[in-house]
Amino acid sequence: MKLYMHAAACSLSPHIICRELGLDIELVQVDRQTHRTSTGEDYLAINGNGYVPALMLDDGKVLTEGPAIVQFLADSVPEGAALLPEVGNIRRNEVQSYLNFITAELHKPMVLLFNPIYSSVHGEVRALISKRLAWLNGRLAGPYLTGETFTVADAYLFVCLNWSPWTDIDLNQWPALHGFMARVAARPKVREALQAENLEAFDAGGVYFAPHAYLASSGRTGEPVRP
Q: CA 214 to CA 191: how far, in whole Å?
């Protein structure tokens, strides 16, 4: 399988799930400006929307949209039931509920904060995100979103919250979420994914990670991630 990705983007979520499940995956970088891949392909011919992630199966079929991809990956091997319970188990629906919440209420609004076109409404968007994070902070049922077990939804939330420093959102005001970030960042397979994408930790607690180019452009400094 091939995972079309961009370092630290939402494609990091399925990348983490592949590592957690021990799936053999080829990472293919996508240039956001040219829409060319690191292997010379026209990415728009693979995903006409132009954004990552996209998962190309061994038979050439392509699956897009992160929440769908992580569910497919979890269902592809028996071990995946630990990350996404089987059909008929209400815990599966709870995980899917969080996937929908993250994509609609966190991921898409946070993306707007990266785009200067929407700068006139950044304050309102940030206020909405803060409201959703406050709700989520009170909902954490344990170490992870649904309790003691790490799921595909936790990987997705980790990736979105990792953008917090770049969108002027201070997670320190929500201790449960900050603790969540530290726990997920410490998982060995998550560390492997971060290292494979050449992401560096730039905060004292090693909770947030970014490509070196982002660190350099913002005047931040980081340390290489080590599993």
A: 19
* Residues sharing a CB contact under 8 Å with residue 212, sequence separation 6 or more, in sequence order: 198, 200, 222
The pLDDT assigned to 204 comes to 72
* CA-wise closest residue to 46 among 66, 31, 70, 64: 64
Cβ-contact 180, 143 below 8 angstroms: yes
Unique residue bearing structure tokens 């909405």:
128
| Structure confidence at residue 69 (pLDDT) | 98
Report phi then psi at 46, rounded to 5: -95, -45
CA atoms of 34 and 157, how far apart (whole Å): 28
Other CB atoms closer than 10 Å to residue 158's CB: what's the count? 23
What kind and span of H or E run contains 199? Answer: strand 199-201
How many beta carbons lie within 10 A of that of residue 198, not counting itself?
14
- At 103-147, the pLDDT tens digits run 999 999 999 999 999 999 999 999 999 999 999 999 997 999 999
- The closest of 72, 64, 131 to 101, measured between CA atoms, is 131
Residue 94, C-beta contacts closer than 8 angstroms, at least 6 positions apart: 146
Q: For 203, what's the count of Cα atoms within 13 Å in the CB-facing half-sphere? A: 18
DSSP-assigned letter for residue 19? H
Residue 83 CB coordination number (10 Å): 24
Other beta carbons within 10 Å of 40? 6
**DSSP assignment of 162-181:** TTGGGGT--GGGSHHHHHHH
Once rounded to an integer, what is the mean pLDDT over residues 41-45?
Answer: 98
